[in-house]
Amino acid sequence: MLSFFSTKVVMVQSDLLKQLARIAKAIAATFPDCEVVVHDLKGSPRSSIIAIYGEVTGRKVGDGIRDLVSILKSSEFREDMLTNYISTTADGKIVKSSTVVIRDPKSYEITSAFCINYNLGPFLSARKIVDDFVQGVDLKKTLRANDDSTDADDEPKGILGILQQVIDRTIKADGRPVSGLSKEDRVRIVAFLEDKKVFCFKGAINMVAKRLKVSKYTVYNYLDEVRASNVRTG
Q: Has this prediction a pTM greater than 0.70?
């Protein structure tokens, strides 16, 4: 929504204020959610606005300047300007603002001000959407080296844990200690694990070999027997 002073008011303003009003209009037209205000402070600060483009703070021509005293007292007020300060409007908008004061070159008295107010609401909403989207699991924190074999160094801890549970429960289901298992018993265990696709995962051969107390080459031989038998019977 654009507001502007009347032609009669324009004619009594200085050339500087006219130029500031044109600049304000250009800035507000370039950036959405941006309000640019020109103040004439030679009169009452309560009715200092002579030009306003864009709508953020809800003010209009004839309204006053906001927080002028606080701006001038700020420790960040340098070179007659305070930039990028944050405030909240009466209707709850979070606004990023910059204010430049202009002085009379002879008396050094403040005669006008040029203010830019930017509504941060759309950016804050967009940031929340992005923050929610990029949340996830840190993969490096989920990795665990396998002490039994370098083959499983890159496997996620969750998969290794599941494999270990499946292997251990399969062996314990036989009801006898591993030392008392025959070759046929071990082949049967390998056959069950093959059916459960355990050997599709890297490092499974080494894990099974350790649990069965045989070499990994022995497990390979058992697996070859199982797969050959499946081919003959399948």
A: no
